[in-house]
Write a structure and sequence with these properties.
alpha/beta, six-stranded mixed sheet, five-stranded parallel sheet, 9 helices, globular
């Protein structure tokens, strides 16, 4: 099969805790682009945080960011975006406070939170520490994040899935956090939207991921790949499992199925 669109998750798939892209993955993506294949990133990161990675890889196609809530190409206006209505965002904040977890909201490239974040963000991401999220959101969030103990987050997934059914899309990018977006926004729906926009059929799309928030993307793609040590939910839907991140499984999959 000739794959014309390749979607890559970032964290846990092509980059680890150091947030550094390996020379091998950069070289492989360069060769893929030379073949005329469209490459995109599909990430939970906001656009401003994902953009430096896209630039380092030479990607010019629209990026699927904020867990699928924004599709945007570098230096251009969003191709598509979905936001959480403020009334719904306020309900999520209330649930988070009741569960005693940390709540943050991403409005475009502005991160709003009530205590300083330990993460280092690129200059394009504005971190705004506010006293009260209820009254300080500058607009409708593209994504909201709840962080806490693994057991608490697992319980919140069940609670919110029932309470906000058909209103929110919930995804876990790691065991200790939960991300909420508009119900039409997910990596899988974003990839389907982009493929349709580019006129590329599903069968010619390849996607690679590592965790629960990649499940619908890997399942939707014509060929879905899970890197080793992926979550059980992702392993269940993947067409192929390749070596883990520390063995550069994503590069292995690309070499095997696109550059062979």
């Amino acid at each position: 099969m000739l794959y014309r669109l390749l979607a890559l998750d970032l964290d846990g798939t092509v980059m680890g805790r150091s947030s550094a892209l390996s020379p091998r993955i950069k070289r492989v993506v360069e060769h893929v682009l030379e073949k005329g294949v469209v490459v995109t990133l599909a990430t939970g990161r906001v656009f401003g945080s994902a953009l430096p990675c896209a630039q380092e890889l030479g990607i010019r196609a629209p990026i699927i960011s904020s867990q699928g809530a924004m599709i945007r190409a570098p230096r251009k206006r969003p191709l598509a975006e979905w936001t959480i209505p403020l009334a719904l965002a306020h309900q999520l904040i209330a649930v988070g406070r009741e569960a005693e977890v940390k709540v943050s909201a991403y409005v475009g490239d502005t991160l709003c939170l009530e205590s300083q974040s330990p993460w280092v963000y690129p200059p394009s991401v504005e971190v705004r520490v506010v006293e009260d999220l209820f009254s300080s959101l500058p607009g409708e969030p593209h994504k909201m994040r709840l962080e806490g103990d693994e057991e608490v987050i697992r319980a919140l997934v069940s609670l919110l899935s029932e309470r906000f059914r058909d209103l929110l899309n919930l995804a876990r990018p790691d065991p200790f956090s939960l991300q909420a977006t508009h119900y039409e926004a997910s990596k899988g729906q974003g990839l389907a939207y982009l493929a349709h926009h580019l006129g590329i059929p599903r069968e010619e799309v390849m996607a690679i991921g590592d965790y629960d928030n990649d499940v619908d993307m890997v399942a939707w793609a014509g060929f879905g790949v899970a890197v080793g040590k992926a979550s059980p939910c992702l392993l269940a839907v993947a067409d192929e499992v390749v070596p883990p991140l520390d063995e550069e499984g994503a590069a292995v999959a690309i070499e095997r199925h696109i550059l062979k």
